[in-house]
Design brief:
It is a single chain. This protein is of the alpha/beta class and 337 residues long. It has one domain: TIM Barrel (Alpha-Beta Barrel). The protein is 34% helix and 15% strand. The chain is built from ten helices and eleven strands. Strands 3-4-5-8-9-10-11 form a seven-stranded parallel sheet. A two-stranded antiparallel sheet has the order 1-2. It has a two-stranded antiparallel ribbon with strand order 6-7. It starts with 6 loop residues before the first strand and ends in a 25-residue tail after the last helix.
Length: 337
């Protein structure tokens, strides 16, 4: 596989993907209205640029996003490394997590139909189920690998303990978690070791989502009024009140260094994530070709030791990532017996 943005390998099982992926969620939900034709054109342009690692989930648009991606890659499956996720469902009260083995199998079959493929390259548990032992969930996922329906397994927003327990059942190629200049939770020590340290020790690659701080690090957002009523960021703690003002100062520092280097703030933020290791493959999301092309340019940016030192000094964002801070880095119950 050749790529203008280069390639990287996730995990020890040999999953090679483009060094930069494309998060497709915004084409179906969360970030305001999207144009179907422009979304499909964006996916096609991604393949032209060598951005072949596409990320979706069955919960994005309640299946709409998988159908959209499936249509866009029809007849071009051999050009793509396709990742999707299961375990989350929209409910009136928010989100329900379901890691039961029977749900694993049902969700996989439904995703294969919507995506119009025979095999999913990377299948993630979207969130760890606090009621189902992760050994049971991953055991069912491993059966999908044995059946040829899935090639590699992944976890999303899992704790270090959950990753260890999952790897004991089946190799895990990738951990998808939020990681960016302003979201550094993945690096925070817990019980003597950070999540990223545990993942690396176990041979698990890192796939950062929202590497642009949900668009904030591009510098394009200057006021809460920039968000439409159907944009989930409008209700995010980081985009409200004093936190918003504090985070604008962080973005100003990124823009200053970006200007010195002759790149955009978004490109610099992506270059920082890429510089965190050869096992790191960020998946910035966009629904427009222009932003995709800008993001792809980050792969060519080299950061010096001084650049990295200056960026490290900027600090993390004010405010929690979600209104419910317990949504991430989940643990499952111990297996009985």
């Amino acid at each position: 596989m050749t790529s203008s943005v280069g390639t990287r390998t996730l995990g020890r099982s040999g999953l090679t993907v483009s060094s930069l992926g494309l998060g497709c969620m915004g084409m179906s939900q969360s970030y305001g209205p999207a144009d179907r034709d422009e979304s499909i054109a964006t996916i096609h342009r991604a393949l032209e640029l060598g951005v072949t690692f596409l990320d979706t989930s069955d919960v994005y648009g309640s299946g709409h996003n998988e159908e959209l991606v499936g249509k866009a890659i029809a007849g071009r499956w051999d050009e793509v490394q396709l990742a999707t996720k299961f375990s989350l469902t929209h409910t009136d009260g928010g989100m329900r997590i379901d890691g039961r083995p029977e749900n694993v199998r049902a969700c996989a079959e439904a995703s294969l139909r919507r995506l119009r493929v025979e095999t999913i390259d990377l299948y993630y548990q979207h969130r760890v189920d606090p009621k189902v032992p992760i050994e049971d969930t991953v055991g069912a996922m491993a059966e999908l690998v044995q059946q040829g329906k899935v090639r590699h397994l992944g976890l999303s927003e899992a704790s270090a303990d959950s990753i260890r327990r999952a790897v004991a059942v089946h190799p895990i190629a990738a951990l998808q978690s939020e990681w960016s200049l302003w979201t550094r939770d993945l690096e925070a020590p817990s019980s003597g070791q950070s999540v990223v340290q545990a993942a690396r020790e176990l041979g698990v690659g890192i796939v950062p989502f929202s590497p642009l701080g949900r668009g904030f690090l591009t510098g394009a957002i200057t006021s809460p009024a920039d968000f439409g009523d159907d944009d989930f960021r409008k209700n995010s703690p980081r985009f409200q009140g004093e936190a918003f003002a504090a985070n604008l100062r962080l973005v100003d520092a990124v823009r200053e260094l970006a200007s010195e280097k002759g790149v955009t703030a978004g490109q610099l933020a992506l270059a920082w994530v890429l510089a965190q290791g050869d096992d790191v493959v960020p998946i910035p999301g966009t629904k427009r070709r222009s932003y995709l092309e800008e993001n792809a340019g980050a792969a060519a940016i080299e950061l010096s030791t001084d650049d990295l030192t200056r960026l490290a000094a900027i600090g993390s964002a004010e405010g929690t990532r979600y209104p419910d801070a317990g949504y991430a880095y989940g643990n499952s119950p111990e297996r009985a017996g």
